[in-house]
Design brief:
Blueprint (H helix, E strand, L loop, with lengths): L1 H17 L17 E11 L6 E7 L5 E7 L3 H6 L12 E8 L6 E9 L2 E5 L7
């Protein structure tokens, strides 16, 4: 009986150790107390795991172009919220609501988006905070 228990233990440990590591960072770098709306042009939209990325070019008050790097949830989560790989493409006009980075640099967490006048979907609908 001990041999069976040892074998089960060894197999269990082997399976657990081969389980893919799910390294995940927190969203603590975003200021959840602030929401900012950016109006600009999509430079690039990356539908990638574990997070999607949106690069938007925004005209600053002084007329200079600023590139913003915006992080979204995982594609599987966004699909449930009405987003898709084809929700936007380079050159599209976008209005995107974000939680900005706490350090003030040009980045943030995507909350909501309107592309070419069409609402995409709530990027957080049904997702954990």
């Amino acid at each position: 009986m001990q041999r069976v228990e040892v074998r089960v233990l060894i197999v269990s440990l082997a399976l657990i150790s081969s389980w893919p590591a799910s390294a995940h960072h927190s969203f603590a770098m975003f200021d959840k107390e602030k929401s900012v709306t950016l109006d600009g042009t999509v430079k690039e939209y990356q539908w990638t795991s574990p997070h999607t990325w949106l690069y938007v070019v925004v005209k600053a008050d002084d007329g200079d172009a600023q590139e913003w790097k915006l992080e979204g949830h995982a594609p599987a989560d966004l699909l449930r919220s009405g987003w898709s790989k084809s929700s936007m493409k380079a050159g599209d006009k976008i209005s995107v609501v974000i939680h900005p980075l706490k350090d003030g640099s040009h980045g943030g967490q995507i909350l909501d988006a309107t592309v070419n006048g069409e609402h995409v979907g709530n990027a957080h609908q049904g997702l954990p905070p």
